[in-house]
Each structure stands twice: as structure tokens, then as C-alpha cells.
């Protein structure tokens, strides 16, 4: 095998041009990973279709019972129930199917479910369940819902002052018609518990009345993977300070290889959990945040994550960044602003 085709002679498009210099074993491993991802996605869609079919069966059974009751009421005699056979039901269903359709059209409108857009929910029943919740008096039919997200801040948190400002500027009637939901976007249980206790001590009256609720981060199947991805990138940047003998080109390559690995792993994680469409949205988001800076500084074709150059320059798997205790200004800044993404202890 020369890396440009498979064993039966069929050409595998894009292997040679897109990955020149990469061993054939790496190419096959990459392709197998892609096929595995596609199979997993197909299985999730298949599960979604099974749920649709089950729901459709229930609707059909309900319709049959409704039709039978309607015919019994029309005939008006229990002794005539035997006359209500399957042919009556099929005939009535057939007439209902034609109602409202354009003549000659066989198209049926099928509304998408949440699993069409978030297929990763099929693999975990807890994907939309809050890991923790404070709610003393649940309200319904309110006219206003305020969402207040918060993350761990190393210097100062504005959560309490924000809630005080929001509640103090609401009238009594407005408080009765509203819910304030505090979303604690953290997976650290100690921090979540500390924040929850602070909310209860500061706003116990409003929690008891149902005005204020608190929910922490949604359970995530990929939390540890996400953290290791970011840690590896920051560890790459940290090494620039440790390797003072690096040439300028090596320092640049070390940073770009770390970024390429981070970007590749992040895309893979998003694809596994959220599907192809989520990757497109993620790339749009990154384009809006970074513009063309990363493409100009670290072109993907010059710094592929699996290249020999990057394998030599990247830190060992599992290396943790120094973060704020390191000498690198970039990692200090990033871990200060986005500390919830990294593990630096």
C-alpha cells in the first residue's frame, strides 16, 4: 500500500494532496476515525427516527380510537358496534389524509425535533439536566424571565451586585410577574456550592418567593476532554519561556503547532457531540472573534498538527500549563479571563 489507494485498487480522494509526507498508517487511522464518527452520527439519527416512529404509532392508535368513538356516537347503538370494522377506519383515515393537500401532491410536512439540531443529546440522558438547582417555590405563567450567567472570577465577582441592582429596581408587581435564573457556568462543585450558599444568604427571601432560582452548569460528556485540549495549547506557549535557546522560527512554530492541535481536537470534540453543523457555526464564531489573524500567523498547511515538526515541538500529553504562576504574559492573561477552561493546579 502506497498511501494513495486501498487494497482493491480504488482511489481514496484527497489523501496524497492534502497530507503529503504523512505516513500511510496515520492516513488510515484518520480515515477510520472519520468513519467511526459518521457511524456514531448515523446511529444517533437512527435512534431519533425510532422515536419518531413510536410517536407516530401512538398518534395513529389515538386516531383510531377517536374515529371508533365518533362512529359509535353516530350509529347510536351498542349492538351496531360490530359494524365498525377496519374498513370503516381505513376509509375515514384515507379521507382525512387528503384533507388540506394540494391535488396530486404527496409531500408531507414533518417538523424537526430537538434531536435534529442537537443529535448528541441522544447519547446522554443527562445532557439537558442541571447538575444542581436551587428553587423553593416554582412559578409558572410569568411575563418576564431574566437570565443571569456567571463564571468563576479570581479577582472580583459582580453577581451579587448585579442581582441587587436588578431586584431593587423592580416594583412589587414586577417581582410577582418575573423569574430570575442564575446560571453558574462551572463544573467545580466546591465553587458551585459556595456560590449557592452566598445566594441563599443574600437573597433567601427572593428564593423562597420563587423570584430567584439558581442552576449550575449542564452536565457535559466532554468536560475533561475539553480541559485537556486547552491545557495542551497553553503548555505549548509556556515552553517558549522555558526554551530560551529557541530560535525565533522555533518559537513561532511551537505556538502554531499548539494552536493547530487545539483547533483540531476542538473540532473533533464538537463533531462527536454536536454534529457537522455545529462545526460550521463554531468556525463562524472563531472567524468573528479572531478574524483572519490565526490564518495569517499560523497557516494550517504549514503547521499541520500531526507533522513531524509539531510532534517534536509539542509538550507531552497531559502536561499542565503554569497559567498565572508562569512567566508567559499570554497564558497569564488567558487563564485570568477564562480560568474555567483550564486546570493549572
Q: For the CA atoms, what is the radius of gyration?
A: 29 Å
Whole-number mean pLDDT: 69
Total discrete domains = 3
Q: Which stretches are low in confidence, meaning pLDDT under 50 for 5 or more residues running?
A: 1-19, 99-106, 218-224, 340-345
SSE arrangement, N to C: HHHHEHHEHEHHHHHH
**Principal-axes shape call:** flat
Strand fraction band?
5-15%
Structural class: mainly alpha
Helix content: 55-70%
Report on the biggest sheet. 3 strands, parallel
Widest sheet: strand order?
1-2-3
Describe the 3D structure.
Helices cover 55% and strands 6% of the residues. With 345 residues, the chain is mainly alpha-helical. It has a three-stranded parallel sheet. This is MGAT4 conserved region domain-containing protein. One of its GO terms (biological process) is protein N-linked glycosylation. GO terms for molecular function: acetylglucosaminyltransferase activity.
Describe the structure concisely.
This protein has 345 residues and is mainly alpha-helical. Helices cover 55% and strands 6% of the residues.
